[in-house]
Structure formats: structure tokens, C-alpha cells
Amino acid sequence: MPVVNRIADFAPEMTAWRQHLHQIPELGFDCPKTAAFIADRLRDFGVDEIHEGIAQTGVVAIINGTGEGPTIGLRADFDALPVVEATGAAYASGHEGRMHACGHDGHTTMLLGAARYLAETRNFSGRVAMIFQPAEEHGAGAEVMVREGIMDRFGIAQVYGLHNAPGLPEGAFHTTPGPFMAAVDTFDLYLRGVGGHGALPHETKDPIVAALAIGQALQTIVSRNNAARDDLVISITQIHAGNVDNVIPDTVYMNGTIRTFDPRVQDMVRRRMEAIVAGHAASFDVEAEFDYQVGYPATVNHPDRTEFAADVAREVSGAGNVEAEAGREMGAEDFAYMLQARPGAYLFIGQGPGAGLHHPEYDFNDAIAPVGASFFARLVERAQPAG
Questions:
Q1: 1: pLDDT strictly greater than 60
Q2: Across the chain, what does the average pLDDT equal?
């Protein structure tokens, strides 16, 4: 793959950075070791400014080009997941119960590689803002960084991000103009009835029967209340009730996720869920406590910036390895908040075969780090060419 030669030169060092980060996974906003490692590398590279403590442990580095011009933002997330690692790697997590199961260690490495190259070469005008973000998995770290003013503070005019994609060919790029990744909401439902002996159900108000009926009815929102052309997923992912075979419990807990692209669909789902829960609770004579939580919005790529980013990706990986109309994904991503604040684009970079994201056996493919770093570097050089 035609990665930038200079980046290829220090690819072994990038592998070492990534594998070090893999050993020190941290969660949410509480990522001091990761942030310190990032800042130390940035000082080694000789970037012009390092701003720490944004969104608690986020870092923004500024690299000045060779002339006047705008500022382009490049973002990488660096938080991990509460997953017990099962890779067996020599560099496996040293923090029990936490691991980089989504490749954020690799995302950070790609951006560090681009930072090193851009700080050395300065073959662009204006400035580049390297955004290293905590709490993508939980906490909406991107929203917090935007709310704390990074776009205005650093004069960022456009912003881009990458995510690795297991199953896509190694080094390939996928993206799509417009809506790309879904909005994600969650719900919690507590049903309270009257428990009793499993042999005497007539003496109880059975919350399990109510939960089963509600679970079935919620699926009719997709099939009977939503237009088939509008993407919608409602998944019940947890049901907890009882602990013995001959006792009907007092309570049932149910939880799940909702994925949408259209705010009108999102509002419809919320209203229908509330009505279904209330109606079924009344019909089964149980009490219901329903909580619907709005989460990350849809990730919406700006069409012209997406085509530009895809063109840069073709330069790096070849036209046959770039799909610029890949279609929507029902996963979610808090980079959505940055794209609400500034025009830009989000892309997937192929990881090749292997375990999927959030799996205990997942491991980032170090071979794609120079490809991602080259993409970021060429994006800057082409968006803001030197005078």
C-alpha cells in the first residue's frame, strides 16, 4: 500500500506505541496514563502546543504549517472497555477487567503517527489540531470536548475521524455521505407485581407474563408503526427476573437499545413504547416504571467533505479499495457531536479478518496503523496545501 515513506520508516515505533497503550486500558474520562503517554510522545515530536485536561483527560495538540490558513481537526478516541481480555497476546491488558476491545489504542497510534510526520515536515498551511478524546464508549467525550469549546478555541474549520473495521479488507476505506451511523437510545423498564408460588399463579400478579407480552409488542413498532424505508432497530438486550424454578418473582427488569436516523422516527418510537408499556401494565395489573434515555445522535457526514476524504483515501489505498457509498451502519459514534459542530467526515478503515469489535479476542491490526496515519497526513496536506 502506498503509505507515506517517512511514516513507513517509523512504523515499528508505532507498533510499540500501540502495544504499550494496549497494556494500559482505561475507562471513560478517567484515562490519566493514556493521556500522559500521548502528551509525552507529542513533546518528543516537537508539536507547537499541547493542551491537556480537556474533558478531564483529553488532549489537543496544535501543529503550525508554513503559512497562513485555516485549522483542520483530526480526532482519535482512546478509552477502553470493561471487557476481560482473551487474546493471549504478550502485550495483553495489565488492568484486570479492562481491555482495548474496540481498537482505540490503534486509533490513537494512527493519529500520533500523523502528528510525528506533520511536525517534521510542515508541508501544509494554517494549522492542524490533533484531538485525542476520552469517553467515546460511555460518557459522550466528544460532546464534552465540543461543549468545552475546542472548535472555537482552536479555530477548527473542519474535522475528520477514523474507526477500524474488522471484516473489511486490510487497509480499505468505507464511508458514505449524509447519515452514516445511527442515533442510539436506551430504555430501562421495571415491572412490579405480586409474586408467589409457581403452582398458584392465580394468587399472583405475574410480572414475567407482562414482560413477555411487552417484549413481543415492542417489536411491532418496527413492523407496524414504522415505514419500511426508514431504518429502525429495537433490541431487547436484558431481562432479569427470579432465581428459582417454583417461585413467581415480584419484579422484572428489562433493558434494550433503539437505533434510528430520523428524529421523527425516534419520537414515534418513544411515544409508542410508552403507550405499549402503560397499556400492557394495566392489562396485566402490574406497575411499570419506564425510562427512555436519548443517547448519541446520528453521525451525519457532510457530502462534499466525504467525497474529499474518499479521494484522499483512494490516493493512499487505491481506488479499488475505497467505497464512498457504503451505506448506513446501525452502530453509533459520539463523533456525531463534532460533525454537528463543524463540517467533516467519518470513515472506516479495514482491519482484515479477525474477532469483531467489543469481543474479548479482538486485537487491532498493527499493519493498518501506517495506512491510517498516511490518510490523516495527506488529508491535511491536500486540504491545506503549503503556499
A1: no
A2: 97
Listing DSSP states for 50-93 in one string gives: EEEEETTTEEEEEEE-SS---EEEEEEE---BS-------TT--
Quote the pLDDT of residue 296.
Answer: 97
Helix axes 32-45, 11-23, angle to 10 degrees: 160
The pLDDT, as a whole number, for residue 319 is 96
What's the CA gap between 119 and 63, in Å, rounded? 6
Upper half-sphere CA count for residue 279 (Cβ side, 13 Å): 11
Cβ neighbours around 66 below 10 Å, total = 15
Contacts of 178 (CB under 8 A, 6+ apart): 300, 301, 303
- pTM reported for the whole predicted model: 0.95
Q: Which three cell numbers stand for residue 67?
A: 503559512
Mean pLDDT, rounded, for 344-349: 98
Q: Distances from the Cα of 367 to the Cαs of 1, 4, 22, 78, 310, in angstroms?
A: 10, 14, 15, 19, 20
Retrieve residue 272's grid coordinates: 409508542
Same domain, yes or no, for 14 and 136? yes
* Amino acid type, 309: A
Q: Are 61 and 154 in contact (CB under 8 A)?
A: no
**Residue 3 in this model has a pLDDT that exceeds 70:** yes
Q: Where are the alpha helices (DSSP H) in 128-262?
A: 141-147, 150-153, 207-220
315-to-258, 267, 322 alpha-carbon distances in Å: 37, 42, 10
Q: CA dist 158 to 126, 151, 155, 320, 385, Å?
A: 12, 9, 9, 26, 15
Please tell me whether residues 322 and 282 are part of one structural domain. no
Phi, psi dihedral angles at 222 (to 5 degrees): -65, -45
Q: What confidence tens digit (pLDDT) does each residue in 7-30 have?
A: 999 999 999 999 999 999 999 999
What's the structural domain count of the chain?
2
43 and 134 together in one domain: yes
Q: Residue 254 sits in which domain range? A: 183-294
What nine digits make up the cell of 322?
Answer: 475505497
What b/e sequence results for 40-49 when a residue is b if at least 16 CB atoms lie within 10 Å of its CB, and e otherwise? ebbeebebee
